[in-house]
């Protein structure tokens, strides 16, 4: 794996990583089939157990991203938050503070009804911050995709000290 170019920005604190995952709300899912890349923004839910990150996505049951996932379940994802623009005296001193997480995962279509209901509750908890209960009928009309994350990194770009 390549290291980060500016290691001072890497985040390893689990609490800070889960704060980013709670805050971002939208992830970009990167797919590729036969040398054709595709990115789709999506809402997500997550669980973090003993440092193992799992993401859940939901979708209509048809479409390009699902066709691509069936052909190649190996994906990359990115999510970010804490956007704060800052100014400088010259253009190259302008910038944007941010926090982000990105990583590699294998996508699995969740077919088991119990797991689908749990996944949708996790998704709503991440998105809305509340527990919702789903029944079989509600989950039957959506596709649920689990991303088993094999590696991820988190990064924070702060506002420069002299501007705080
Ligand atoms: C903030 C945000 C959150 C979203 N959350 C979800 C979610 O949780 N679940 C979900 O299923 N979808 C979500 N969407 C919509 C998602 O980005 C896709 O539009 C949708 O999933 C259909 O994708 P598809 O590959 O099936 O496209 P198809 O319906 O098969 O469309 C094919 C073509 O439409 C175009 N297209 C598709 N999506 C977009 C787009 N977003 N913007 C511009 N052009 C597009 C592309 O050119 C693509 O080749 C979200 C979008 C945004 C912006």
Textual characterization of the structure:
- With about 160 residues, this protein is α+β, with helices and mostly antiparallel strands.
- The chain has a single domain, classed as Electron Transport, Fmn-binding Protein, Chain A (Pnp Oxidase, Chain A), CATH 2.30.110.10.
- About 25% of the residues lie in helices and about 45% in strands.
- It is built from 4 helices and 8 strands, in the order βαββββαββααβ.
- The protein has helices spanning about 15-25, 65-70, 115-130, 135-140, and strands at about 10, 25-35, 35-45, 45-50, 50-60, 75-85, 95-110, 145-155.
- Strands 1, 2, 3, 4, 5, 6, 7 and 8 form an 8-stranded antiparallel β-sheet that branches.
- The radius of gyration is 18 Å and the shape is globular.
- The two termini are about 35 Å apart.
- The chain binds flavin-adenine dinucleotide.
Rounded to an integer in angstroms, the radius of gyration calculated over CA atoms is 18 Å
CATH fold topology: Pnp Oxidase, Chain A
Our measurement of the CA-to-CA distance between the termini, rounded to an integer number of angstroms, reads: 33 Å
State the CATH class.
Mainly Beta
Enumerate the distinct ligands. Answer: flavin-adenine dinucleotide
What is the strand tally?
8
Number of domains: 1
Enumerate how many helices there are, as a single number: 4
Q: What is the second-level CATH architecture?
A: Roll
Largest sheet: 8 strands, antiparallel
- What structural class is derived from the secondary structure elements? alpha+beta
β-strand percent reads over 45%
Rounded mean pLDDT is 94
Secondary structure: helix percent: 10-25%
The dominant shape is globular
User: Could you list the spans in which at least 5 consecutive residues all have pLDDT below 50?
Assistant: none
CATH superfamily: Electron Transport, Fmn-binding Protein, Chain A
- Helix and strand pattern: EHEEEEHEEHHE
């Amino acid at each position: 794996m390549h290291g980060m170019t500016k290691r001072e920005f890497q985040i390893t604190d689990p609490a800070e990583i889960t704060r980013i995952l709670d805050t971002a709300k939208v992830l970009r899912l990167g797919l590729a089939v036969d040398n054709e890349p595709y990115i789709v923004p999506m809402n997500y839910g997550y669980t973090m157990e003993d440092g193992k990150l799992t993401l859940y996505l939901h979708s209509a049951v048809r479409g390009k991203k699902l066709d691509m996932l069936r052909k190649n379940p190996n994906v990359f994802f990115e999510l970010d938050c804490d956007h704060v623009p800052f100014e400088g005296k010259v253009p190259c001193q302008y910038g944007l503070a941010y926090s982000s997480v990105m990583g590699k995962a294998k996508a699995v279509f969740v077919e088991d009804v119990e797991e689908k209901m749990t996944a949708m509750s996790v998704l709503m908890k991440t998105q809305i911050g509340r527990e919702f209960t789903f029944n079989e009928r509600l989950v039957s009309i959506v596709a649920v995709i689990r991303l088993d994350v094999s590696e991820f990194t988190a990064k924070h770009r702060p506002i420069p000290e002299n501007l705080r």
